[in-house]
Write a structure and sequence with these properties.
59% strand; 7-stranded parallel beta sheet
Length: 102
């Protein structure tokens, strides 16, 4: 739980991370935030009452958010940005089987 900022911020360069079966709530910004990370799996987790996004990961590669619940966030449920615009290589970013609601 957080009363301000991010509940969990993944540092740039972080890799090989599995987040499973955890709940994240009451962040002022994104509940999970990260940039420049790779090989991250978020599965069977819950995200509630965030000021911006439930999960927001940018400039990253090989990220999976699966079978999770996002509810009552201010802006975006799950926001994944990555890949290479110059070479058109996709970022292997996937959001599969999640529930996102008001």
């Amino acid at each position: 739980m957080s009363i301000g900022g991010f509940v969990l911020e993944l540092e740039s360069g972080a890799s090989d991370i599995i987040i499973s079966g955890l709940s994240f709530a009451h962040g002022q910004y994104n509940l999970i935030s990260g940039s420049g990370v790779s090989n991250v799996t978020i599965v069977d987790s819950k995200f509630f009452n965030g000021g911006q996004a439930g999960v927001s990961i940018s400039d990253s590669y090989d990220v999976l958010v699966k079978s999770s619940i996002v509810k009552n966030v201010g802006c975006k449920g799950i926001n994944l940005i990555g890949g290479d615009r110059v070479t058109l290589e996709h970022g292997k970013l996937r959001a599969i089987g999640n529930s996102v609601s008001k």
